[in-house]
Amino acid sequence: MLTASAQPKSGIRFGASLLLRVGFCGYCGGALHQVHRTFPNKVYRYYSCQNKRSERNNPQQKCDKLGSLPQDALDEAVSAKLLEVIGHYELTEKRVIEGDDHSATLKKLGMQIADLTTQHYVNNGVHDFHKRMSELEAEHARVSALPREKPKVRRIATGKTFRQHWEAIDDEQRHAYLKSAGVHARVVREEDFTISAASEQGTQAADDLVLDIPMNVVAEVPGKFVVNIGLGTLREQLQHVAAV
Ligand SMILES: [Zn+2]
After folding, report:
1. pLDDT tens-digit readout, 36-75
2. How many domains, in total, are found in the chain?
3. 86 plus 116 within the same structural domain
4. What residues are paired with 39 via a beta bridge?
5. Cα 227 to averaged position of ligand 1 atoms, centre (Å)
6. N or C: which terminus of the chain carries fewer CB neighbours within 10 A?
7. Beta carbons within 8 Å of 23's beta carbon, 6+ residues apart
8. How far, in Å, is the centroid of ligand 1 from the Cα of 150?
9. How far is the CA of 53 from the centre of ligand 1 (A)?
10. Which domain holds residue 139?
């Protein structure tokens, strides 16, 4: 009875996949696709290379090297590696500060012109009214002609570490976050990793380092797969937590 009621027949929620359009086959560059195999009491979730079956495509494009990648293990390995490498840095966010359109200055000048007019015509008169008025009018014309300032982009500390942010959002949001940051994960079988690691080394050394965070980090599903993760713009979003 208990088992039956705990297992709804419909409405199974598969959860989000961290690596869709973020993860790619390290052999052919194909995107990782999701495969679900549903059994009465369990759903197995896998990734596989998009070119694994290529009935529709050129047979030469067929790529069967990765086979099936257990999704949970791979997602978990990537998530754990990100936390290990950048979890302790503070996240910043871009803030756009609107440029001055001078409306406040113009309003102030307008008030001064109105005050001067009142003083001169309603109250006792102002000694050099015309001189002062023409100065104010000239200033108003000058400011009116100024171009609007361009908006400025600043990075503002969020007060949250990458880990705090990551742990506060769900899998779907994590996936969207990685995708928008241009994170790019290439998966190969463990036995093939040495080659791709060596070819990566050359470019990595030449890269400009931000906060000593490398461009690429390597996550492993031990005995099975290795994932080379390009961190994309995640690096630019981070800073050292300010000492208190
Ligand atoms: Zn492939």
Report:
1. 888 888 888 999 999 887 666 676 778 889 999 999 999 9
2. 2
3. no
4. 42
5. 14
6. C
7. 31, 32, 47, 74, 78, 185, 186, 187, 227
8. 46
9. 10
10. 99-144
